[in-house]
Design a protein that fits this description.
This protein is mainly α. It has eight helices and no strands. Belongs to the ExbB/TolQ family.
């Protein structure tokens, strides 16, 4: 009896439960483990990328409010591919320069074109910030149900084995039930971090996007004043 108890104990280790599982449950477990790895890869990437974005925003704001002329800042940024506030700034300045080079006469039309250019750039930057967040949402919502599916299949298989052996001994029933419940456990382990990470990074992306929109509104006001000044100077010269 003691040897039987030891054998039953050795048969309920995580590895043995996985190896004894049916093909469907194995596929479910492997898929959930892969989803968990993908979740942590996204988490690591977002921590690094969001930190980099914040540093670039701070650096740009420092340069923008340092008293450096807009033309100099535009030339320095346009030489490389800017991101964040730099991309919004370059898009607005590019439209500004093109319009005046072509002899823009309507300040309202010019302001609308500048605002449109900044809105398009803002949408692109927000899309970059939110990249792969949808994967976290999908894993967080679907993983528990996928794990539950594996559990249901495993329990059905266990009941079929019990019926075939015609025995309800705990040593016979326990491994199959444990094997089935392990699928749900893995599903929860994949889903919980994904949900927490999605909520955290969605909030961070919203804060960064709001910061970009605030700069765009402020810069739009600055350009609006300069447009009025240039139009007045042109009308006086004429």
């Amino acid at each position: 009896m003691e040897q039987v108890g030891l054998a039953a104990t050795s048969d309920v280790t995580l590895w043995s439960l996985f190896m004894q599982a049916g093909i469907v449950v194995k596929i479910v477990m492997l898929g959930l483990v892969g989803a968990s790895i993908w979740t942590w890869a996204i988490v690591a990437d977002k921590i690094v990328s969001y930190g980099r974005v914040r540093r670039r925003l701070d650096k740009f704001e420092q340069a923008f409010w340092s008293g450096q002329s807009l033309e100099e800042l535009y030339r320095s940024l346009s030489e490389r591919k800017p991101t964040g506030m730099g991309a919004v700034f370059v898009a607005a300045m590019r439209e500004w320069k093109k319009s005046f080079e072509r002899g823009a006469k309507s300040p309202i039309g010019l302001q609308m074109r500048i605002d449109k250019a900044m809105d398009v750039t803002l949408a692109r930057e927000a899309e970059k910030l939110e990249a792969r967040l949808g994967s976290l949402a999908t894993i967080g919502s679907a993983a528990p149900f996928i794990g539950l599916f594996g559990t249901v299949v495993g329990i059905m298989t266990s009941f079929q084995a019990i019926a075939g052996s015609k025995s309800t001994n705990l040593a016979v029933v326990a491994p199959g039930i444990a094997e089935a419940l392990m699928a749900t456990a893995i599903g929860l382990l994949a889903a919980i971090p994904a949900v927490i990470a999605y909520n955290k990074f969605s909030a961070d992306a919203g804060k960064i996007t709001a910061r970009l929109e605030g700069f765009a509104d402020e810069f739009s006001g600055i350009l609006s004043r300069q447009i009025d000044e240039r139009m007045q100077t042109r009308q006086a010269a004429e």
